[in-house]
From TrEMBL:
Transmembrane segments annotated in the record for this chain: 6-25
Pfam family membership, one: TPR_1
PANTHER family in the cross-refs: CDNA SEQUENCE BC021608, TETRATRICOPEPTIDE REPEAT PROTEIN 36
Family: Belongs to the TTC36 family.
Protein name: Uncharacterized protein
Keywords: Membrane, TPR repeat, Transmembrane, Transmembrane helix
Superkingdom in the source lineage: Eukaryota
Keyword Signal: no
TPR repeats: 164-197
PROSITE patterns: TPR
């Protein structure tokens, strides 16, 4: 075969290689775009599982928690990054008494980039729930982390309706840490949001003048 023919064959092979590489990159781009779109807009079937899990958990009965957990897992199988499914899974596990596993599910819900898909109200509730679980799993080791979650929840809340709950728990955390003045401040702020809060008044009574 002459030099000219070999050169032409080389050019043809190079052209085909470039075409295949470009086609592969284009397909990968389309695949990633489709995946992102699915994560932003869960399938109707995933939404159906989320709604069913919510209904079961609203009954607040341990016997329904397992069914709610199954519905949340089905939703996650369709959309693994859906934070609401992780939150519902955590609530079901908590109702079943599996606090450590519930905490891991809330970590998944509040981990970037999933947390960006949550509304402010959902994020605040998840932060408070995670703080409660941290204290339930290991108060001594996790109290500082729980305080961080509660402070973030109060800052984000802006009238979401959980300020008093978050502030009362924050006051208890400061009380456990021996930070008397900070605890008093948290309980007083809780009373600003909910003047009839028995928990906040009891906290102030415990701490004294």
């Amino acid at each position: 075969m002459g030099v000219g023919a070999l050169l032409q064959l080389g050019i043809l092979i190079l052209t085909l290689s470039l075409f295949l590489v470009m086609a592969y990159l284009r397909n990968q781009t389309l695949l990633h775009a489709t995946t992102r779109s699915r994560n932003r807009h869960p399938k109707p079937e995933a939404n159906r599982h989320l709604a069913q899990a919510s209904r079961l958990l609203a009954l607040a009965r341990p016997r329904d928690a397992r069914a709610a957990l199954s519905e949340a897992d089905r939703a996650l199988s369709l959309n693994p990054r859906e934070p609401k499914a992780h939150i519902l899974r955590a609530r079901a596990l908590r109702l079943m008494g599996h606090h450590a596993a519930a905490l891991r599910s809330l970590d998944s819900a509040l981990w970037p980039p999933a947390v960006r898909l949550l509304s402010t109200a959902d994020r605040v509730e998840a932060l408070v729930e995670r703080a409660e679980l941290k204290l339930a799993v290991n108060r001594r080791r996790r109290i500082d982390s729980a305080v961080e979650d509660l402070v973030a929840a109060v800052e984000l809340s802006e009238g979401e309706g959980v300020e008093s709950e978050a502030l009362c728990l924050l006051g208890k955390c400061y009380e456990w840490k021996g930070m008397k003045e900070k605890a008093k401040e948290a309980f007083r702020k809780a009373l600003d949001f909910e003047p009839d809060s028995i928990e906040a008044r009891n906290g102030l009574d415990r701490l004294g003048p």
